Amino acid sequence: MTPAQYTSMVEMLIKATQSEKLIWEDYDGDFSTKIDGCSLLISSSYDFSVNISTYTLKMYNKKGVEFESFSYSENIDIHEYQQLNRLYNVIRDKYYRITESENTILQNLEKMTETPLLETNDLPF
C-alpha cells in the first residue's frame, strides 16, 4: 500500500464511520470492524515510562491472518499519528455516542436552568 493509498484509506474509514456506514466493535478499548470479511483493528497505547502515546492500525485478510500493521507515535510520525488519533476518536464518539450524549445533557440542563418569565398575575402587588 502506498502512502497516498494509506492516507486515503484512513480518510475513508473516518467518513464511513461518521456516516455510520461502518460499525465498529469495542474490545477493551481497541476497536474492530470487518469490510467484506477482512478485519481492521485500531488500538491506542500509552507508554508511561517515556510519556508517549501510540496508535496502531492492523489489517487482516479473510482467513484472519494479519498482513499489514501501521503504528505511529505522537513524537515521531506526527501527521500519521494525528490521522489515526482522529479515526480512533471518531470511532469512540460513534460507539459510545459521546457527542450525542453531551448534546442531550446540555439541552436538558439549559431547559432546567431557564428562568421562567413572570406572568402579570404572578406579581406580588
Model description:
This protein has 125 residues and is of the alpha+beta class. It has one domain (3-110). The protein is built from 3 helices and 5 strands. It has helices at 3-18, 78-96, 98-113; strands at 25-27, 30-35, 38-47, 52-60, 66-73. It has a 5-stranded antiparallel beta sheet, with helices on one face. Strand 1 and strand 2 (30-35) form a beta hairpin. Helix 1 runs parallel beside helix 2. The longest helix is centred in the last third of the chain and has 19 residues, at 78-96. The N and C termini lie far apart (79 Å).
From the structure above, extract its key features.
5 strands, 125 residues, elongated, 5-stranded antiparallel sheet, 3 helices, alpha+beta
SSE order, one letter for each helix or strand:
HEEEEEHH
What best-fitting shape do the alpha-carbon axes yield? elongated
For the biggest sheet, the summary is:
5 strands, antiparallel
Question: Can you count the beta strands?
Answer: 5
Broad structural category: alpha+beta
The value of Rg in angstroms is 22 Å
**In terms of quaternary structure, what is this?**
single chain
Give the N-to-C terminal Cα separation. Answer: 79 Å
Mean pLDDT: 91
Residue share in β-strands: 25-35%
Q: Please indicate the count of domains.
A: 1
